[in-house]
């Protein structure tokens, strides 16, 4: 009889441990699911902000806007005769010619 009672309590303890582990896993799963939902919402917010900023950049960098801003500042397009090109020789070249 004693072994049957011992087995009974052993099975009861094992069943309680299994129930506790299952409850812990369920709780952990719920926590992780809530965290994933939170991260997905945060990601969606960042993506919306990114789209807004990209649209703003596109508007600010449009050719028409830049030309209008240049006119307001009194700037004008450089004419070909106003452009000066400077050609630099690699170091070491030209030294022997000048010596």
Task: Give the domain tally.
Answer: 1
Please summarize the sheet with the most strands.
none
Give the averaged pLDDT, no decimals: 89
Secondary structural class: mainly alpha
Name the helicity range.
Answer: over 70%
Q: Secondary-structure element sequence?
A: HHH
In total, the number of strands is 0
Low-confidence sequence ranges: none
Kindly report the oligomeric state of this protein: single chain
End-to-end Cα distance, whole Å, is 115 Å
What best-fitting shape do the alpha-carbon axes yield? Answer: elongated
Strand proportion, as a percent range, falls in under 5%
Radius of gyration: 38 Å
Secondary structure tally, helices: 3
What does this structure look like?
- With 99 residues, the protein is mainly α.
- It has one domain.
- The chain is built from three helices and no strands.
- The protein has helices spanning 2-60, 63-72, 95-98.
- The longest helix is centred in the N-terminal third of the chain and has 59 residues, at 2-60.
- It is elongated and about 115 Å long.
- The mean pLDDT is 89.
């Amino acid at each position: 009889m004693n072994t049957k009672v011992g087995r009974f309590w052993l099975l009861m303890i094992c069943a309680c441990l299994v129930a506790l582990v299952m409850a812990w896993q369920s709780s952990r799963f719920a926590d992780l699911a809530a965290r994933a939902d939170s991260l997905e919402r945060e990601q969606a917010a960042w993506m919306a902000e990114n789209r807004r900023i990209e649209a703003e950049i596109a508007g600010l960098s449009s050719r028409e806007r830049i030309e209008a801003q240049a006119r307001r500042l009194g700037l004008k397009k450089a004419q070909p005769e106003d452009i000066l090109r400077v050609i630099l020789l690699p170091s070491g070249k030209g030294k022997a010619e000048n010596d």
